Amino acid sequence: MLIREIGSAYSSILRALGLAPEKNLDPETNGEYALLRRLATLPEISHYDCAIDVGAHKGEWTVDAMKAFSGTPIAKFFCVEPIDHLAAELRQTFAGQPNVEVIEVLMTSEPNPAMTIYNVGGTGRIYPSYRKRGPRASAKGTQKVTTNLQVRGATGDELFAGLRPYMVKIDCEGHDLHVLKGLTSVLRNARPAIQFEYTEYWIHAGSRLHQANRFLRNLDYRIFRLFPHKLLPIRRGPIIDTYEYQNFVAAPAEWKSLADGTIRL
Predict the structure, then answer these.
(1) Within 10 Å of residue 27's Cβ, how many Cβ atoms?
(2) In terms of DSSP H, where are the helices of the chain?
């Protein structure tokens, strides 16, 4: 796929210039958990009371968020997971913990009572079928076994209206921008921090990084690339999609603790 090859070449240039992180899926070392610990120290946290894990999978991020935010005003955690057996596992993991609520739904940009998603390769990782097409071949050129699942779709604005989330983590296999758009009112009114995953699956979802950048800037957010030990701001200007795995962080422009400069974690 030519668009993927061009993105990969551009990503190599960015990494060589120190403007993009190396590919690292381990939250212990790629900055994801360091970000949580940094956010736990910010004075802005006093204005919020919950955190949201979209694409919670088995709840690993929520477990670490609960540890990082222990002793802070963040007292409620929402795990959003559309795959039934993973949602059941989440309920078992957090049984007896009333401060954790599991929501079995696919968050999207528009309400939809019946959506088709795909369990790819039997791993429990999914992405929806946009443009009326299913999963493509994997990056290695082999077609993975897929299972069609029917799930309920809902927007974040439906689910979390009136709440004050401090952080929204999104890990939805390319579906991330659709989740963001469904949170428009929450982002405008509650002003949480955001972490979202960016991968080659954005191609299949019809999403582009410059669209996410424009969407968030229009809501007066600052955008950062997440590195293991820092947040590097994205300057205004043209953005070229690389489709290389990395995480981005967005913070409300009014948060003085995360000014528009490099932030150490």
Answers:
(1) 18
(2) 2-16, 32-39, 60-68, 84-93, 156-160, 176-181, 184-189, 201-204, 209-218
Please write the tens of the pLDDT for every residue from 70-84. 999 999 999 999 888
Residues 6+ apart with CB under 8 A from 3: 203, 241, 243
Q: Which residue has the higher pLDDT, 161 or 129?
A: 161
Two tokens at 22? 């190396």
Q: Give the residue from 96, 100, 97 showing the smallest Cα distance to 78.
A: 100
Domains of the chain: 2-112+153-264 (3.40.50.150)
> In the structure encoding, which two tokens stand for residue 100, read together?
């954790």
Side by side, the strands of the sheet bearing 146-154 are: 106-107, 146-154, 112-120, 125-128
**Residue type (1 letter), 116:** T
The token pair at 186 is: 């929450």
Rounded distance between C-alpha atoms, residue 246 and residue 171, angstroms: 11
- In this prediction, residue 130 carries a pLDDT of 44
- pLDDT surpassing 80 at residue 229: yes
Any idea of the CA torsion for 39, 40, 41, 44, to the nearest 10 degrees? 70
Q: How confident is the model at residue 8 (pLDDT cuts 50, 70, 90)?
A: confident
Q: Could you identify the residue written with the tokens 């960016």?
A: 198
